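Supplementary Methods, section 5.1.

A reviewer requested that the exact input to the structure prediction be made available. We therefore reproduce it here, unchanged from the version used in the analyses.
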Amino acid sequence: MGIPPRNSATTVPILCFLACILSSIRAAPGRISSVTEREIEANRRHIPRYGSSNPTMSSSVASTNGLISQFFEWFGDLGIFCWQVLRAAVTPPFEFRELLLQLDEIGSKSLPLVALAGAATGVVLSMEARYSLTRFGAKSLLPAAIVFSVIHETGPIITGLVVSGRVGAGIGAELASMKVTEQIDAIEASAVNPYRLLAATRILACILMLPLLTLAADACGLVMGWFAQALVEPLSLHQFINSGFKGADFNDFLPPTFKTAIFGLIIGLIACFQGMRTQGGAAGVGRAATSSVVLSSLFVILADVVLVKVILIFFP
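The structure derived from this sequence is encoded token-by-token as follows.
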């Protein structure tokens, strides 16, 4: 039998099919390797390596570091500001006219509010102390309790907080508005030191007026405390004063009063500092006023804790 003749119509498609298979086999390793590399890279992006930090933890650590750096930066800027104000305050020419204006603005215009706060405190102390002392059979000590409470602590701290609310917000907003409207730059361009004209006068006025305002708050508190006591039980003001100040001396009166000068330094310094570093237009003015009140009140309370301990050590 002979070999059957080849059919060319069937042989050509078979050869083309085999050639396509061979070419795909040759190219498959490259494609498989490239696909494998892409999958590995994708998995590497989505699956953190061993020892790598969590993104949420990294952001929280970064924000904490930012807050700490801002905290120390704020105190550093405050120290530089203190030095500039001190240097400007002791070098002539001195701004006596501006100082008198600030004494009136801070002292006279704060007097009604301070007197009202002191009077309200005296009434509350009289009612609460009378109720407490009566329970323990020590009603005769009521005048002394009111006097020592008002003079030692209540009068100074109430005065500091009231003045920090009114004066701190006023100074902060005033200097902030001058800063954002470039009035401070204009003053400096006129060869006038803004630290001497704006900051030193306000800080010195706060230092001088806080003890005087404290005396007013103490007087109103004692008078209204006596008045609240006299409404319940007849007692003359002379008897109330004699009984309240029995055994008291200047060590009970002067140190608590003059510690408010430190409160005035804190209020004026922080309010001027926050106002003169303002940025951001009207919103910045609002932030400066708010931060002046909050920070000055906070530092007044912290300073009171330290000063009470110092007074107890040196004036037992």
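Residues 95-314 form one domain. These observations are discussed further in the main text.
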